[in-house]
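DM from R.C. (forwarded with permission)

"hey, sorry to bug you on a friday — could you get me a structure for this? deadline for the figure draft is monday and I only need the backbone to look sensible"
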Amino acid sequence: MKKLILFLSVLFLFAFVGCQENQLSEPVLNEDNASVAKTEIIDLGCFLIDPASTSQCKLVGKLTYNHEATVLSNSTNLLITLLIDIDAWLCGEANHVGYPWVIRQTNTHTFIIKNIQSLNTSFKSENEKYFVKHYRIKNRDDIMLEIKYIVDQASLRIRSISIAPGRLVSE
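My reply, with the result:
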């Protein structure tokens, strides 16, 4: 009888331990501070018109960006942080003298997108943000590279690239 009670006790103990829910062994994403980050590279390769000489220039290089989207605590707002690094050069008829037209710059931009339900919802066009960035061109003081961007909760896209006349006053 003692063996039967001991056996039933051990069986009950195993059943009790075996039926408990498993503990999570992976990190849990807190919905209040959900954050998604990614890094992408955009190859730059297009022909542009130099407004100073009306000749054609070729833009070659890459644009690397880090896009981080964070849901702000206790809200439906999304904070987007962008780190944009451009490493490119212009090749044109006018720069045959050996002075490269180089564009190298790193910038950080932040945006707040309002009334986002979750990171899993699709972005509507009214939640896209448009912005324009002007870049200095080394060995050219009379023009600058102008890139128009579109940013949303998931990515950064280039809307247009052009060469704009003028100088950058301050960065």
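R.C.: lifesaver. Residues 31-165 form one domain.
me: no worries. Confidence is low (pLDDT under 50) at residues 23-30, 118-125.
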